[in-house]
């Protein structure tokens, strides 16, 4: 009977891992399908942005809400319902006749993805005990790392061979399998909220606040030349921050809060939050820029890019279980600190390797160190975040870690993008006046390149029309160097972010957290 129970637990982990993989994969997998979608819907990349943004926004906004509902009414119930919703929405995505329907169903799909992601760690923690729990959380961390980095490879292959609907249809058969396995093998957790009221005001305020802040960052990302004080940006950011302050005020006074604000008084928990944010804003945000470098500038296809990025993602496959085993013997705090520092070194190596002739040969050492950091920290962070957490709070802790990881990714993409734009524009301003061409033509071309940005600037500089110009070669050289300056600055900034995350972990996290002591302390 014990052997069957043990087998059932690992099958349950497979079901939960499959749900997490699908939910996180759909954050990035759409990127490589956008060119095909643009042709299919006969529209522009600008209009297609909401296929990405609808998922990102709703996913981040509903993570905490789904966590709280799971804690109150049973995590298996909410996880299972989220998975079913995700599968149905995936099928609708693939069949979507119009872009509007696709945008709406992507938002619905994100609710399912958030429910699966936010409750997975808590379900694993409640389905496993002792050393097995560390190993199981380590494996789940591996799945998180792999799913986040494998989007270009999986998406590229599916789009190339089966068309863009395949990136959504593939979720249906695997989702059905995961639903069946979850029904049979995942053990339900107690409903901790039987006598609690739903904190409806808290849920509404958190949703509005997060939506406003993240949407404000998305607007800024899409319009890098708009000032932070531009009302179209500042009104969203300031409004969102005010609402979140109101959320904290409400949570401190309501009888059954959505989020126990006291958790943020624990230095150890704050340390894990800082690491989660650093992971998102450093490693995950940088992946978007690395993909653009490999596809737009080096010239690899989506599949070729994905294969080469296995240098990052492949480490998560086996380092997660290793980290889970080691976490029961050694300090998770210091393993996280040293792993983050290894990642920082990887970014600095990447920055040093950027050049007009850069290829994968020069990039792979830095990518490997990035992969090692991601492969180690993710599973260790899951386990460390759960330490000292009462059973009724595990879902919310899981949700908060994921919120800060996702929020960090959004902030990182915007922040790194602004740094890249500034370096790119500065180089163009400094070197284009040296070209032998009329000043008026030079200024017009410069304005076009700056407005297009680093990614599209390469396409313009190497277009058929530009190639016929007598100054094409020196102009293209300047554009490439401008892009390289931006990419090097992005890599250095990501390295600094990861190192700061390591310092935060070293100062705030504890080697061991006594959950019994914590429970007594909270009751007082």
Automatic annotation (TrEMBL):
Residues 12-513 form the Major facilitator superfamily (MFS) profile domain. SUPFAM superfamilies: MFS general substrate transporter. Coiled coil: none annotated. It is a multi-pass membrane protein. GO terms for molecular function: transmembrane transporter activity. The chain crosses the membrane at residues 7-30, 50-66, 78-102, 108-128, 135-154, 166-186, 198-219, 231-249, 269-289, 309-327, 334-351, 363-381, 487-509. The keyword Flavoprotein does not apply. GO terms for cellular component: plasma membrane. It comes from the Bacteria. It holds the Pfam family MFS_1. Keywords: Cell membrane, Membrane, Transmembrane, Transmembrane helix, Transport. InterPro entries: EmrB-like (IPR004638), MFS (IPR011701), MFS_dom (IPR020846), MFS_trans_sf (IPR036259). It is found in: Cell membrane. Belongs to the major facilitator superfamily. EmrB family. This is Drug resistance transporter, EmrB/QacA subfamily protein. It comes from Lentilactobacillus otakiensis DSM 19908 = JCM 15040.
């Amino acid at each position: 009977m014990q052997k069957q129970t043990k087998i059932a637990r690992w099958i349950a982990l497979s079901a939960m891992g499959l749900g997490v993989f699908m939910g996180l994969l759909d954050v990035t997998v759409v990127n490589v399908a956008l060119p095909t979608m643009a042709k299919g819907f006969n529209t522009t990349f600008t209009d297609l942005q909401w296929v990405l943004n609808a998922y990102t926004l709703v996913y981040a906004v509903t993570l905490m809400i789904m966590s709280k509902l799971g804690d109150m009414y049973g995590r298996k119930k909410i996880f299972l319902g989220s998975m079913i919703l995700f599968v149905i929405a995936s099928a609708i995505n693939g069949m979507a006749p119009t872009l509007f329907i696709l945008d709406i169903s992507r938002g619905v799909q994100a609710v399912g993805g958030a429910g699966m992601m936010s409750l997975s760690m808590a379900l694993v923690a409640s389905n496993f005990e002792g050393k097995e729990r560390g190993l199981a959380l380590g494996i789940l961390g591996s799945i998180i790392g792999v799913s986040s980095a494998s989007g270009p490879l999986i998406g590229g292959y599916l789009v190339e061979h089966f068309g863009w609907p395949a990136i959504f249809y593939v979720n249906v058969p695997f989702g059905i399998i995961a639903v069946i396995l979850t029904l049979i093998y995942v053990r339900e957790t107690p409903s901790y909220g039987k006598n609690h009221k739903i904190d409806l005001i808290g849920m509404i305020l958190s949703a509005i606040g997060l939506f406003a802040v993240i949407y404000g960052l998305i607007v800024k990302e899409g319009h890098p030349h708009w000032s932070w004080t531009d009302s179209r940006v500042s009104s969203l950011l300031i409004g969102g921050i005010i609402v979140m302050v109101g959320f904290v005020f409400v949570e401190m006074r309501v009888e059954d809060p959505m989020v126990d604000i006291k958790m943020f008084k624990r230095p150890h928990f704050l340390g894990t939050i800082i690491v989660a944010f650093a992971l998102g804003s450093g490693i995950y945000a940088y992946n978007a820029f690395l993909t653009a470098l490999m596809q737009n500038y080096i010239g690899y296809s989506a599949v070729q890019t994905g294969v080469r990025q296995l240098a990052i993602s492949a480490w998560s496959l086996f380092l997660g279980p290793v980290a889970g085993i080691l976490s029961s013997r050694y300090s998770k705090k210091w393993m996280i600190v040293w792993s983050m520092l290894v990642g920082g070194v990887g970014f600095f190596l990447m920055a040093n390797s950027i050049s007009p002739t850069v290829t994968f040969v020069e990039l792979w050492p830095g990518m490997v160190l990035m992969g090692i950091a991601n492969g180690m920290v993710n599973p260790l962070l899951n386990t460390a975040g759960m330490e000292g957490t009462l059973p009724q709070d595990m879902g919310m802790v899981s949700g908060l870690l994921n919120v800060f990881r996702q929020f960090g990714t959004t902030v990182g993409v915007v922040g790194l993008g602004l740094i890249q734009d500034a370096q790119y524009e500065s180089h163009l301003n400094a070197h284009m006046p040296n070209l032998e061409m009329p000043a008026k033509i030079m200024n017009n071309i410069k304005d076009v390149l700056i407005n297009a940005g680093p990614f599209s600037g390469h396409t313009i500089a190497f277009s058929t029309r530009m190639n016929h110009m007598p100054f094409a070669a020196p102009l293209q050289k300047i554009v490439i160097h401008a892009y390289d300056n931006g990419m090097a600055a992005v890599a250095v900034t990501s390295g600094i972010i990861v190192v700061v995350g390591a310092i935060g972990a070293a100062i705030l996290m504890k080697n061991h957290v006594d959950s019994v002591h914590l429970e007594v302390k909270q009751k007082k």
